[in-house]
Design a protein that fits this description.
By secondary structure, the protein is an alpha/beta fold. The chain has 14 helices and 17 strands.
Amino acid sequence: MSCVPAAEATCETPAVADRHAAGLAVYVHLPWCVVKCPYCDFNSHRAPETLPEQAYVDALVADWHAQIGDEDRVITSVFIGGGTPSLFSAAAIGEILAALDRAPGLAADCEITLEANPGTTEYGRFTDLAAAGVNRVSLGVQSFDADRLAALGRIHGPTEAHRAIADVQAAGIQHLNCDLMFGLPGQDMARGLSDVETLIAANPGHISYYQLTFEPGTPFAKRPPARADDDTIVDLFEAAGERLRAAGYGQYEVSAWGGDHQCRHNLHYWRFGDYRAIGAGAHAKITGADGRIQREARMRWPTGYMQSAGTSAAVVEQRVVSKDEARFEALLNGLRLRDGIARADYEARTGLAWAELTDHVAPLVRHGLLDMTETRLAASDAGWPFLDAILSELV
């Protein structure tokens, strides 16, 4: 376990960071998949023949009870991710949510998201999940092209994707996100736009539209499949954006499109709010009563996690965030939002001064890439297409 010395980590200028400023979110990690996709670098593992569902749920509950202590903030959002959470029964999901609700409690309007793979759901499952408390589903559709899905190593096809969308809607779950990828192996402009138009016709409230990347350590990074050149990928993203806007989807974050269905949990991350986490490999960000911001990580391997959950051995990393790290993390996340960073959020959640931030970003403001006022910092219209370069410059 490693910790940054406290003398290097105070975030108390001009005031102590306010741990109550943004409420509390919770991330729950369920680490198993039927098959691990060749592009995935998440902490996911191929499911055993018999899933240790109850043992893992017991570990999650023990982990939660051990860490909440005197936590007095109500939970405003829960995100159950993976892995493939839809491998777990609705009863198991309900047991996890019940533990969170007992202490410190779920807000009356708490957003509760569950990720689902269209290839691991069955008719009626979403009705049961809704009864257990799930009110938002995030479906990993990725594409409606059978050949592209096969190239990605997905276990579902277009038929399963359409059925899963219809099942979520039939279950009365009003908040549905669908993940859609572009820049896929063998995908040209026509195929890419066909995916977008097919998904728009299915009418989910929210769409996460993001580019396939070859992450280090994945099979795709070691043996990259052929795909379109960068110019074609950029053209596809811009043309897809036009289609999405015309259909009423507003881009509020780099990869997130949704009008009245913005993801509250992800907004909490991007606005540098606190979140606790349970599950193998789960990461948390917690502000203490003294204003210091701490990050934690839990043991990655499911077996080791189940054996150690509820004890200090389950936490394999714990460190205090320095002032420079807090500033950069707030910029890295907040500038992804089209509306950028509100001064009130920045000062309350980092404990840092707006004036210091003004000095830090001044060169980019002078070049017209960032817009900054007394109350907000955001990428300008000219800077928005170059956000990655802007963030690299701010490191």
